[in-house]
Design a protein that fits this description.
Length: about 625
Amino acid sequence: MSFLPTRVWPVACLLSLSGSVWAATATVESTARGPVALGSKVWFLGKVDGQGVYMNFAVNGIPGGNATYGKLNSQNGEYVAPSVLPSNVVITITGTTTKDAKVGANLSASTTLTLKKAATPTPTPTPTPTPSPTPAPVPPPIGQQPAPDAARISAVRLLEQATFGATPADVAAIKTNGQAVWLKQQFAMPASAIPVTTDMTLLQNSWYKNMATGPDQLRQRMIFALSQLFVISADKNPYANEIQPWLTTISNNAFGNFNTLLREMTLNPAMGKYLDLGNSITPSPNENYAREVMQLFTLGPVLLNQDGSVQADRNGDPIPTYDQARISDFARALSGWTYPGSSATGINWENFTGPLQPRDKFHDKGSKTLLLGAVLPAGQTAVQDMDGVMQNLFQHPNLPPFIATRLIRAFVTSNPSPAYITRVADVFAYGAAGRGDLQATLTAVLTDPEARQDQPAATQGHLKDPMLQSLGLFRTLGASIADPRNLFWDYFLLGQKITAAPSVFNFYSPMTRLPGSPQYYGPEFQLYAPSLAVARANFLYKFISGEYKGMVNVDIAPFVSVAGDATALIDLVDSTLLAGRMSATARQAIGGAINASADPRQRAITALYLAAISAEFAVAQ
C-alpha cells in the first residue's frame, strides 16, 4: 500500500500539429465492439491527427446526451446506454474540439453506435441432489495458536514498556523472580559507559549499542525519555564533545532527583550552547532557555490540575502558566553565566569540559518577579538568582502532573486516565523519598494498575517510534549489532536521527493528536504519515531479509527450519514477537501470504516481516 504523492503534469499541449490548419483531421473512437446493450457502458475518445484531445461530446445533437439516447460525460468519455431502446437504435456521437491556436478553429467528428436489448439470462436448471460422501477430516485452520501463557504476556508487556525490547533471558528472569525483583535489579545496575570523545560517529554508535544491547535497559529507556524532554541537537551542537556532557548528565541523574537534574542541565555547557544560556549577559540577556525551561522542561504553557487536566478561567479559556514579562525576568535572573576557561572573571568562549560559571559583573542586579508572585530582590548574585529560579520551578504545582504525564506517555500509554496521572504525580510531589524522586516516580509509572492491566483497552498503549520498533525487533530476535553507523541516515529519513532532533520540541510534539480521532493523543503518529509508514516497513524488511547484514545481523534459521509447516511457523513468529497475542485475523492474513511461496527462507522472511509491521507489534500495549 502506498500513499506517495503523485506528480500532476499540466496537459497544455496534447495537440501538436504542423503545417496548415486545414490539414488537421479529427476523429471520434469508441471501445464498442458491435452493438451496445441497454444500460451498459462504453468509452469515447476524441483525436486530432491521431493524438488524443479533449472534446465536447453530443448524442444525437444533444450536448452530453439524455435518458432517451444515453448520457456521455465529456470529461472522461464515459457513455451509459439508456435503459429503454429508442425508436431508432442507431445513434450519432459527435465530438467537437475547443478552439486552439495551432488549429485556428473548432474541429468536429462523428461516429455511430448501435443499441440492442440486454440479453435475457438463461435460467440454470436445478441439479438433482446426490448424496455427499463423508467429508475428510479438516485440519486446524492456519493460525490456530496454543493457549496464551498469561505469565509470559505479563512479563513481555513490562519489558516492552521498560526496555527497548523483550529478550528471552529477561522474560525468563521475570517469570522466575517476579517484576519487583527485576525492577530492583535494574535500578541498581551500573550505567553503560558513554565515551568522552570528539568523534560523533563513536558517540552515536555507543549510545545506539547501549540502547540495543546494554544490560541497564531501564536506565537506557529513561535516558531515551529524558533526552526527548531536555532536548539538544547536533544540528546546532555538531561535535561529540558538545553532545556528550548533556547525555552524561541525563544518564547520571536518570534515577536521581529531578531538582538535581534540572540544576545540572541548566548549567550544562551543551545546553548552554544549544539554548544560549552560555554567555547570556546584561543588558540584553538571551531569552531562549528562560522560555523553554518553563514551556518544555518543567511546567508547560498552561496551568494544570494534579490529574493533568487544564485549568480554565471563568470564560472557559486555559490559564497561561507564564507571560512574556516572566520570560524576560527569568532571562534576567539567569544572566551572567559563561563557560569554563582561561578567564576567571571575564567571558570565555565555548568550552564543554565543565558546567557554566557565574560572572556577577555580567549579571542583571535588578529585582525580578518570578511565577506565583515570587520576587527575587535587587542586588543578588548570579548564583542566588539561579537558586531562586530553580526553587520557583521545582516547587511549582504544575511540575508533578507535567512530568508524570510525559513519563507515562514515554513508557506506557499516550492516553492515561486522570486517575493514573494523579497517582504518579502524587508520588513525584509527596513520595516517601521526597519531592522529585525519579526512581520512585518511574516505579509508580510502571507498577500502576493501569500499566499492569494485561488486557488493555483499545485506547491504551502507544505507537512505537522508529527507534523503539526497530530495536524491539532486534532484541526479540536476538540480533547482533555490528556497525550501526550507516543506519543513522535511514533513521534520519524516518524522522528520528540519533542526537539530531529537528528542534527543541523533539522529533515529535507530545501534544500531537491521533489522526482521525482528535479526542486522543498520539504523539508518535507525527512520524507515521503514509509515506513514512511505507519507508519504515521497507527499513525493517532489509534487516529481516539480510540486506543490512554487517550492520545488524538477524539469524532467522530457527524460522526457516519450521517454514514447511505454516501453522508451526506462525506459532513461532507469534510467540517470539508477540508473546502469543497475534489476532486470528493477522494469523490468517500472514498464513495466506506464506502459502504463496514454496521456498522455506522466503516463507520465514514473509512471516517475520508481516508480523513486525503489523499494528500488533508496532503498538506497545
